[in-house]
Amino acid sequence: MEATTPAESYTVASQRFVETNLVRKKLKAEQTAKWFCLGMVILMILPLVSLVTYVFIHATPSLNLEFFLEVPKKGMTQGGIWPALVGTVYLVLVALAISAPVGVMAAIYLNEYAKDNWFHRAINLAVINLAGVPSIVHALFGLGAFVYAAKFGYSIISASLTLAIMTMPVVITSTREALNAVPIAFREACWNTGATKWQTIRRIVMPNSISGILTGVILEVSRTAGETAPIMFTGAVFYKAVEKGDLFPYFLDEQCMALSMHLFAISTQVPNVAESMKFATAITLLGLVLAINATSITLRMWLRSRKKW
Amino acid sequence: MSDQPQQFGIETEDLCLWYEKFQALIDVSVKVKDGLITSLIGPSGCGKTTLLRCFNRINERYGYVTSTGIIKLLGKNIYDDDVSLIELRKAVGMVFQRPNPLPISVYENIVFGLKIHTSRKDLNRVKLDEAVEQALTEVGMWNDLKDHLNRRAIDLQLEQQQKLCIARLLPLKPRIILMDEPCSALDVGGTSAIEELMYSLKDRYTILIVTHNMAQARRASDECIFMLLGELIEHSRTEELFLNPKDSRTADYIEGRYG
Per-residue pLDDT averaged across A185-207, rounded? Predict the structure, then answer.
């Protein structure tokens, strides 16, 4: 058989490696794809930025220290948002205190102890699916379970428990991700010196995943600051009289005001509220969530810098 | 012990092991002598690592592994009811292909085993310091590392990491050290350092090493086991196996006709 000869262009040294039409076409597609994807990024960021800017500009007339510290006055048409701000912080902190230990321990069990059998697969599936349950359903569950069945009444504890249940699936998922990021070689090294699983978890796995766990948990729980339905059904009220600037206005078995609820109230239920007050409330809620997120990111960077591998 | 010549470090009788349906070990009966370095050679997938991993019962961590037969370490059946996995793994050290120091300091790596196996009131700084010095001296790194005990173990060179992984086993006073291709991530210098270390340790331990490197097996081991497709083909003194292989499959393998 006759040997196949190389293409003409390859036989001339000066013609080697030059761009062919096919290559040119590929490079064009490459550019198109890159710019198209970049366009999508801009398309995604644009509404977000314009929204925040819009809200912020409209909020400026009302944004001052008095607005944050003052209590609502004259049928909520005047004054500030202090009780709602404190109420939201309370709800989030109590929810965090409940969901963090429970969620992290559950994640440790599922990730480190659970064998791969139908029972644990079912639990995993349930955890994933629970994350998709609408918040109104959680609200109704909280109402039935905590307000009535457990007799906690309409209270911070009922509302925070509802929020905690709601975030549990994501807390478990993010904790498991953090645990999985610890290389399996570390665990094997421990087991091979005869360490029990708990010793391995406590001495090696936890110290090396704590930054991821904490930031994940805080991020997830902070998102609930904006939830309205679950707390409306279980413990948030339109109005509650508290002192201006009082840091401890509520007991856990009392109802409280909350930013999301307050925003809903002054935007739709109360007439004659200045536009800027509504926007200022919205920007406060946004700012609070951002502040918690920023804290958790700072915490992560600090813990990462101390990480040993 | 070496004064009881009939005692073997590791003995198996008709050991079979399945990964679900796939049989990875077929009737393996082997006697590994105490106080020697024994190497396990054979082409990839022949069951060397699987066999090694039977001896600290790490295979059973995976639910789909089943096995039959008898495994005795130092004369004791490790599947007896009164065998504690924790005590077994304390006595059977394992060194991995990639050095796996824990993400803590050199010092903490070495005392890790002591700390998890000793109640807090029996631990004191002096005891731990002694253990660290002794272990590092034994692996020949005391002079290099005595001023760097607080360094992160992960930052050491690979060779030092691997030696540290061996040093980490020693405070627990193991009797058997299993090595799964301990030099495959190391360069020539690191490899010969680990081989010298094995040689200096061998009198006091049963050392079983899996290796892909036939030259290494030939250089560094007293006895050699050749495995193929889950079966033990030949087990004899190393020079015997390399110079006068009894089985034609062994001969073909060491001449490099397959593998």
Answer: 90
What tokens were used for B57? Answer: 């019962």
- Smallest CA–CA distance, residue A300 to chain B, in Å, is 18
Topology of domain B8-254, CATH: Rossmann fold (3.40.50)
Q: B65 pairs with which residues across the strands?
A: B19
Please tell me the distance in Å from B15's CA to the nearest CA on chain A: 22
Nearest to A194 among B90, B100, B104 (CB): B90
Domain range enclosing A104 = 82-238+253-305
**A 109-168 residues with CB below 8 A of B?**
115-117
Closest C-alpha among B176, B164, B161 to residue B132:
B164
Residue in A116, A117, A185 closest to B100 by CB = A185
User: Domain segments of chain B: what residues?
Assistant: 8-254
Strands across the sheet containing B176-180: B92-95, B176-180, B206-210, B37-41, B223-228, B231-237
- The residue type found at A215 is T
Q: How many CA atoms lie within 13 A of A36 on its CB side?
A: 6
- Domain membership flag for residue A284: yes
CB count within 10 Å of CB A140 equals: 16
Worst-scoring range by mean pLDDT, A90-99, A233-242, B233-242?
A: A233-242
Confidence band, pLDDT 50/70/90 cuts, at residue A9: low
Please name the helix (run of DSSP H) or strand (run of DSSP E) that holds residue B33, with its range, or none: strand B22-33
Asked whether residue A229 is assigned to any structural domain, the reply reads: yes
In a domain? residue A54: no
Q: Are B186 and B194 in contact (CB under 8 A)?
A: yes
Interface of B with A in 109-168 (CB under 8 A): 112-113, 116-117, 152, 154, 165, 168
Ranges of residues in chain B with a pLDDT under 70 are 1-6
Report which residue type is found at B144: D
CA distance A112 to chain B (A): 12
pLDDT recorded at residue A11:
67
Print burial letters for B128-157: b (CB count within 10 Å at least 16), e (below 16).
beebbeebbebbebbeebeeebeebbbebe
Average pLDDT over chain A reads 89
Nearest to A173 by CA among A110, A234, A115: A110
ipTM: 0.81
Residue A267 lies in a domain: yes
Task: Specify whether the CB–CB gap between B165 and B94 falls below 8 A.
Answer: no
- DSSP SS3 for A86: helix
- CA pair distance B123, A67, nearest whole angstrom: 59
* Three-state secondary-structure class, residue B98: coil
> In this structure, what CATH number is given to the domain that contains residue A92?
1.10.3720.10
A94 and A219 Cβ atoms separated by less than 8 Å: no
